[in-house]
Every structure is written in C-alpha cells, then in structure tokens.
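We emphasize that the prediction below concerns an isolated chain of 308 residues; any contacts that depend on oligomerization or on bound cofactors are therefore not represented. The input was used exactly as deposited, without trimming of termini.
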Amino acid sequence: MALYDVPAPAKINLFLHVTGRRDDGYHLLQTAFRFIDLCDTLSFDLRRDGHILREGEGMAGLAHDDDLVVRAARALQQATGTSLGAQIRYRKVIPSGGGLGGGSSDAATTLIALNRLWRTGLSRRDLMKLALPLGADVPVFLYGQPAFAEGVGEVLSPLELPERAYLVVQPPQSVPTAGVFSSPDLTRNSPSVKISVFADWQKINAPDNGFFENGFFGRNDLEPVVFAKYPRVGAACSWLGQQGLSARMSGSGSCFFAEFVTLEQAVVCRQQIIGKISCRESGNAAVVQNAWACSGLMDHPLRDWISS
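Result of the prediction step, given as a token string:
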C-alpha cells in the first residue's frame, strides 16, 4: 500500500501583525493565511515494522530525527498506538527559510497522508492538536482553507478570499525564523484588528481594470528586523520596488509576493523579472535567486482527505 505524489502547498501571509508576547516567550499574532499552488510533493510506502524512514531532495544538513516530517509521523504513531511505519520520500520545491511554510506544510501533509494510509481515523480537530507542538504554522495546513489567525497562530477563522494570482520572489538569502522573533527591535504592540475590517478592506480595494491601487492591507511587522539583519533581502525588496512592483515579505522571510488579478499577469511579470535579473548582479550574486507565478488556492488540495 502506498500514496504517491501527495502535494504540500506553500502559504503566504497577506499581512502579519505582532500584537503581544506571552510570558512563555511565544508571540501573539494576527495574520491572514492563503495557500498557493507552489508545492512540495511527498510519497508514502507502508512499512509493517513500525520504522519511519525518509529520503529525498533538500535534506542537506537536516538530521533525520529533527525533520518535521519524521516528527509528524512519530506523533501520529504515538497518538494512535499504531504498529505501522512508513518510507517517506519527498521532493522539495518550496525554498527553506523563505517564509512560505514549506516544512510546516510537509509535516501537515504527512499527518494527513499517514492518517489515511494507516487508517487511524483521526478527525481534523485531532490532527490539529497533534500539529501545534510541531510548529505554529502547521495547524493551518490541516485547517484546510484560507484563514484569519490569532493567538500564536492556532486560533483560526475561515476567510473568503477572491481569486488572485501571485508572483513569488526568492532573494539569494534565507532567514531563520527564531532569530527574527528574538530580536529586541521587533515591534510587539501592533493594535489588534477585527476580521471584519480585513474582509471589508478586501471588498473596498478590489482592483479597477485589473490593477491594484492601494497595495496591501496592514503590514508585515517582521520586515524591518529582517531587512536590518539580512541586507540582501532588503536589497531584493528595494529592487522589486524599482521595477514598479508592490511586494510584501511572507512570514519571517525571505520570500516576497506581489498580487495580480490573473495568472497570466503574474506569468508576464515573472518573465520580465527573470529577463532583468539574468544580466544583473549585486556583488557575486543575483539580486533575485528565483521567481514563480502561482495561483492562490481556495482550499488546501487535501482538505477532503480529513473528516471534520
């Protein structure tokens, strides 16, 4: 028994406000999550010896036991008492340290797929409880739809979002999340906003004739810290602005996104960006390492694999 080519989509944070900090050090956030069709893919072969083994691209320097995929599989084993195991292979496309939730998405897809492969029968709520200790972003991938998130990211409310496309741009520098949140310069007192305010903004700021006039809702409070600590990320943002693009950093960075009405617009913009960066260098590295034209997803592709 096996499951092959199971998708693990990336996410973007349409805005990200840090509203406080708990006594245990965890930060209180407000953000809006959206999935995009930039995906890692994972395959799962059933093992009857209980072992969890993983192989694939993009694992350089990552110890087996530290891999979120392995930790997710073991969490499901422990919670259900199953004696089954799995051989897990995955192909990484989502860049690490990019703020696109690749590791969290891989972990969530592992929980969803093994819950099916092992026939453990956990509900969405059960799997979300297992997910939170793995990382604050993991539960939203199990939630399965665009979400307004509060708390440390675990308090989720559904969002209705319009069809949109995105140009996702990767600078030649990755950003470790922990260092950003530990910075003394991080803003930790942004005012809270109501979900209705964000929803109304989406309606009021619908594009006129296919173009956005008013940029993004709110801000990403992590941007100033990242730009100060990782100058090549800040340089990429400045360069994108010089190209006439309003771009926002996703999560803790380093990737940026620009929003479009249609995928065709995003594809054209990507072609223009790639053409410009192919002959432009800053020092010994291009100002942008990679770029993708992506569709915004209305739901997680595995949402129907879990009972609610």
